[in-house]
Structure formats: C-alpha cells, structure tokens
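ok so heres the complex, two chains, lmk if somethin looks off
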Amino acid sequence: MILQNEIKMTNRTRIFPFLFLAVLLIFNSGCRSNDSKEQPVATSASVNDDPLPSWNETGHKKAIISFVEKITKEGSADFVPVAERIATFDNDGTLWSEQPMYFQFIFTFDRIKAMAPLHPEWKNKQPFKAALEGDYKLVMESGADAINALVMAVSQGYTSNEFAQIVKDWLETAKHPTTGKLYTEMVFQPMVELLEYLRANGFKTYIVSGGGVEFMRPFTEKAYGIPPEQVIGTSFKMKFEMQDGKPEIVQIPEVNFVNDNDGKPIGIFQYIGRRPIAAFGNSDGDLEMLQYTTSGSGLRFGALVHHTDAEREWAYDRKSPFGHLDKALDEAKAKGWTLIDMKNDWKIVYAFEMN
Amino acid sequence: MILQNEIKMTNRTRIFPFLFLAVLLIFNSGCRSNDSKEQPVATSASVNDDPLPSWNETGHKKAIISFVEKITKEGSADFVPVAERIATFDNDGTLWSEQPMYFQFIFTFDRIKAMAPLHPEWKNKQPFKAALEGDYKLVMESGADAINALVMAVSQGYTSNEFAQIVKDWLETAKHPTTGKLYTEMVFQPMVELLEYLRANGFKTYIVSGGGVEFMRPFTEKAYGIPPEQVIGTSFKMKFEMQDGKPEIVQIPEVNFVNDNDGKPIGIFQYIGRRPIAAFGNSDGDLEMLQYTTSGSGLRFGALVHHTDAEREWAYDRKSPFGHLDKALDEAKAKGWTLIDMKNDWKIVYAFEMN
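and the predicted structre for the whole thing:
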C-alpha cells in the first residue's frame, strides 16, 4: 500500500498530495462526536429466505444469485466442486469505506501521536516531527521513504499479539472524522451478506488487499467472518526471535510483499495456489485480480463496487485519489463484469442505517 | 530447501556432498522394477472405532488422543475453540519418506534428463552437462548457484497448471530407487490417519515444509487430504504475465522465501497468522516450528517422528544428511515433546504393507 513506492509507482502512491490536503481539511475542522453504539456490524439484516436482504431487486443481485445457483448445481455443465469455490475480495472500498483516506492511514497518524511520549527523539526528527505537529505538507515533501518510516514505526518492536491488540483497541474507540462512527461500523452490510451467502454455498472467502495484513487480521473475523489465514495483504519481512525464552515473530523494517495491482494475482497464487472463480474489487488496483479470476475456464464472476452514492457514502471513480477507478471501469464495461451500483443496488450501505 | 544457500547455510545445504555420493551409489546400482499397484494411499486402515488403527497401543498414541480429547472438551480449562485448532506438519520425513534423498531432488534430476532434448545447449553448458552425464560430483563442485540453476530450470517457463501436471505425471510413473514403489505410496499411513483424526476434531491441518510449494501442491490433497491453500513451502518469486491474452502467473528465477528452520514459524505467521497448537516434524529444520508452537499459552503438542525402523523404512538421526536430527532431538527430550518411535509406535509404516 503506502509502502509500494519501494517497488514501483502505482495509483496508491500518487495520491499522497491529495491525501494530505484532505487530512488538513478534515483535522482542522475537528472530528464530529456522534455517539455510535457498539453494535454488531456483521449480522444479517434479515432472517427471511432472501440471502441478500440489503440488496435491491436489480439485475446485479440476480446475476450474483444466478452465478451461485449455476456453479452449485450438481450435474450441470457449470458445476464447480466445493474445493474450487474460492472467492476473493479487496478490502478498502469493497468491504468497507476508504474515504477520505484508507483507514490504515488514519490509524498510522493516530499511533504516531499516541506513541510520541515514548519517543522524545521524534520531536526533533523528521518525518516524525512534522507528523506530530500536523504539518502533513512537510511529511509529503519528505517523500515515500519518510512515509514508510511512519508506517513502520507504529508496528516495529511489537510482538504480533501486541500489535493486534493495539489495532483492536484503536478500532474499538477511534471515530471516523466525518461520520463519527467506529471504523468497523463502516463495513458494507450488503457485502457482509454476500460473503455469508457465498460461504453458505461452499465458498472459501478471502480478503486480497493492498492494506497491511497485520492491520486487517485483528478485525476481519468479527467484521466479515474471514479468519486470519484467509487474509492476504501487504506485509513486512519478519524475524524469529527469543524474548525472555519465548519465541516470537517480530517485524523487520523492510517490505516483504506489496499485494496490489499485479501483486494481487501473485499473492493469490502464492497463498491459495488456485485461481479464484469469483473476485470483487472497486479500483484499478483490483484490475489484475479480476483479469486473472475471470479468465479461468468455466463460469467466472468478476465485479466492481462502483461508488455512486454521495449521500449515504461517497461518489467517486476516475478522479479520486483513493479507490481510483479508471482503467478497470473501462475493462469492466468491455468484458461484462458486474458493476455494482451502490446507489441503486444497495437498500442500505451500513448496518447502522437500520436503527 | 536447496535454495536456501542464498540466505544462509543450514543443515540442508551442508548435505550435498553426502547426497551426491548417495545418488551415485543408487543410480549406479540401477532402479528396482517392482510392480506397484496404483492403490489409494490416503484411506484409513480400518473402519472400526479406533481413530488411529495403524498405531500400536503405546504411550505416544495415548498422548495424542489425550491431547485431542482435552482441547475439544467444552468447558474444560484446556478447551480450544475450533478456529484456533491449527496443526502444522513438516512433509519430508514426517508425512512421507526422505531417503535416500528428498524426493523433489530425484524429480529434479529426472526432469533435467527428460527436458534435455528441448535444450540442446545443455550438452555444453554446466551444470546441465554434468547432470545429464550423471557426473553429480562435478555438479556438486560447481556450488549452490549451479544446483539452484537445475532446480529452477525444471520449473521455469511453465504456467502453474503446466508445472502441476508435470509433477502429477512424474508421481504417477516414477518409482523409488530402492522400494520400487510410487513416491506417493511412501506416505506414512499412521500420519495420514493422524491428519484425518485431527480434522475430524475440528483442526485445520497445514503442511509447513522446506520443500518447494509448487512441487507439493499437486499431490497433497490426494495423498493427505490437505488442499493447496494449506501448503506452505519454499517458493520462487512470481510475475503476472499475459499469454495469448490470458493472464498467467509464471516463475522468476529468484528465491522468494525459504521455509525451513526459522523460516517455518515466519511462514506460519505470514500465511496463517496464528500460532499453531500442535506441530509435527522430524529434523532440526523443524526445531523453531516446534519451539514456536509449544511455547504458546494453553495446552500444546509438539512431536518428532524418530526414524528408528531400518527394516520397514530407515533408521537415522544425528548422522544423517537428510532429516538431520540432532539439536531438536536433545530439545525434544529436555522439553518433553513426543518422540514418535516409528519401530515401536507404528503397526505399519506404508499402506501397501496391508496387502
């Protein structure tokens, strides 16, 4: 994700100037303090027979159900054995919101501030000084290595369990700057239902995200029903180390794998070893995953969540720095991938709308 | 495995001089041509109530069953939720034999010979020339890079499906040099039963091997009931590439990850994201995996398959180049890990003994 600058320039790396302008605007305006109840976000919206109750009765919902019915019908030409029912999902912008910036970025800035008392040297050391002073413009001008330094600083030195707890604590308390909701309340209820529906039909559901794997694993099981071993993401290198006689896995400040763009099908191959039969994304970072998935033999399903709802969520595609959707939008139209229209296809976006 | 020289010297890299002496002896004596029937190797030995019918009624069998009964007993202090029931298994020497050398090595030499007609340049290019002429001593003297070149040469340029088919074809026809059996007939029936028993009790079973992941995935589902996505191994780097308009994942001749020694717990963390509660190995290459597994909180199970049966399989430990078991043997005794005694604990070693 924000580490991929070390490998090559991609959409996500080009967004920083926009990001920090956005950050300035948001943080200067202060966070709303809407009280958000701690409600379960991953439960079904309904107990009736409709497997996708938060979806409107549009052609896209029918296309999903038709695909699942075909590949599960034994004896049919389209039948796919359970073992091969692999479905992969991008996370940011596909399973939860990604505006005004990837939630992991907000986490990183929050952590830098929270950790500052333990790092008095940060006051006089860039890019930490700038981050602490809210001078995001200066952080940006310092370049990709400086930004990577911030991201790595918030996870280095912790054991895996310790870092997971930090993420959990943040997710239980931090509020989104414009909705005032917990970040885990901003998962898309229709997509949670889709995940459950696929699993009920024998699918193994995976997250395949440019986000950091250690940031995602602490919450994906509760939010999406996806266990840690089915989360593929960008990762750091690790080392094995004895701490007080107990072996622990700790991070090395070096990028291991950037799971975005062509990294997505590569990650899928290295972790899963099979070509998925269905893939869901929302940006150009998902293009290669959808190409890889839909070009396998037999019936395949490729879909993009199109952010068309400025009222309930956000509306953006070709011009957005986050979730930039341009090339993949053209290819979706050319290849007949399903373009999930958030505004028209989804009865609700977030579970809290039901209250 | 044989690629890890690029990272550091480990047991497996020190064994090559021994290996090639062994190869010379074996290949010079010619392969036995015992006819081996193509029988299923992964079926249970019995349909009675005993979950481990190929195990003798020793303390080690009782220890395994006692562990499983304790961690599955709801309400008990030792209870472990299903999601956390992760068991990891080394492959070579733990789930199938590894003498007179790792079976993947035999595959590599066989493939170099089979591919030679398509590579006339190999006749005059080392280390291929030496490999083709059976001059393994010269291959060895050429060093680790030369050996890596052989291993990479047999998988480069193929799509993942193509390479998987090559492995499958080899496993269906190639015979072990001393037993004359198919290599997949040399899986350990007691361990296949153990895998099934653990899965029946809610475990996810993983292979965590120094072997190449692309060599293992084509046969682990049939042989052990372990799907490709639960096989963690040594891997090459990959690239995403369009071939006639179809996206494929193909190898780059560069090592991605060496899944041996401390690489095992690192691989476990990166792929699974949880500390296993049970781990099974047989050599010093498994030491860190067992340390990592058994040092977690709550009840844990660590075991080593000790090769003590010169008659039915092989007897070796501290002095063997393959499956070198020295430090881990001492630590097993010191820490009370279960030392599975092949000769005394196993009623049969291979399923074909039942015929």
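quick notes: The mean pLDDT of chain A is 86. thats all i got rn
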